[in-house]
Amino acid sequence: MALQDLNILLVEDDDVDVMNVKRAFRRNNISTPLYVAKNGLEGLAMLRGDPNDEGLPRDRRMILLDLNMPRMNGIEFLEALRQDPHLSTTPVVVLTTSNADRDRLAAYRYNVAGYILKPVQFASFADTMVALSNYWTLCELP
After folding, report:
1. Are strands 114-117 and 61-65 parallel, antiparallel or unpaired?
2. Rounded distance, CA 24 to CA 46, Å?
3. Residue 78 burial by CB count (10 A; 0-12/13-18/19+): exposed, middle or buried?
4. Which residues contact 42 (CB under 8 A, 6 or more apart)?
5. Of 43, 57, 126, 129, which has the highest C-beta tally within 10 A?
6. Which helix (H) or strand (E) holds 92?
7. R_g (Cα) of the chain, nearest Å
8. Tens digits of residue pLDDT in 52-81
């Protein structure tokens, strides 16, 4: 399955990083729908289909998750996601600036599919999105 076959929820509070993900998708012709939540609480509301959701489809979903966010950070989000029987198997890739071992270990305790450090330069960021697309091309989701 290619990244284009997915519905991606980007849980990210930094507008520049959101813009970089969108730009990297366009640059690499990744046409998958991208939904954005500014923090973990918004992300959970979108996944659960609360009345204020953005229309995120209920199937073939993947989450790109930042860790350092207000209101509900990425680790708290992962804990809530994995405790919800309807969302617990949703694949998550952490996309963060945190290179701290404690963050990496905490994320992997919640069975993330990957932990990617955000590159500083846009060209490297775009290459990271291509690598992610190639990875998901090899994986299958229900």
Report:
1. unpaired
2. 23
3. buried
4. 11
5. 43
6. strand 92-96
7. 14
8. 555 788 888 889 999 999 889 999 999 999
